[in-house]
Amino acid sequence: MPGSAPGGVTVAALAGVVLAAGGGRRFGGPKQLASLGGVSLVRRAAALALEHCPRGVVVVTGAAAGEVAAEVADAGVRTAHNPAWCEGLAGSLRVGIDALPAGDVACLVLLADQVLVDRDDLRRLIAAWSAAPHLVAASAYAGAVGVPAIFPAAYRARLRQLSGDGGARALIASLPEISRVAMPHATCDIDTPADLAALDGGRR
Length: 204
Fold this sequence. Notes:
With about 200 residues, the chain is of the alpha/beta class.
């Protein structure tokens, strides 16, 4: 969706980071490789991000890095490996941010396991960011704010300073003003094989 948006920002200045590095301890293995409707979670998230990010998409790998990279090798995205993936989401986010194009490029951050997030959700998020491109646009769900979220280029340094497994949520919560987008779909993530089976069964 290139071109000019309502807030005067150019939507073409948007890149994406898909966090797909986890070991899936509760799942019993890297859940990003699990399949929903015949498509792996990482491939699903990468394709969704690519539809909305003209400046490209980076998939951050960690556990089972070779298999995850192979899964998206023909998907039109780049991969960046986080060797310290077990230290938490923040490290993977830093790796993804560092792999983004230079310049005034905003960043859409997605998790591979938020499988119900769809095109309409991201379009609403992008519209909110476009209307106020200096603000972080974040999803609101389950009484909190988090990702999917769009961070203006000016936030890259702050994203690099994050630590632990909280990812970007702590940063978003600390900001005095953000663009909130209600996104109930983001509440659903995949923690166990039973979670995935319940969703997959409902799609048949």
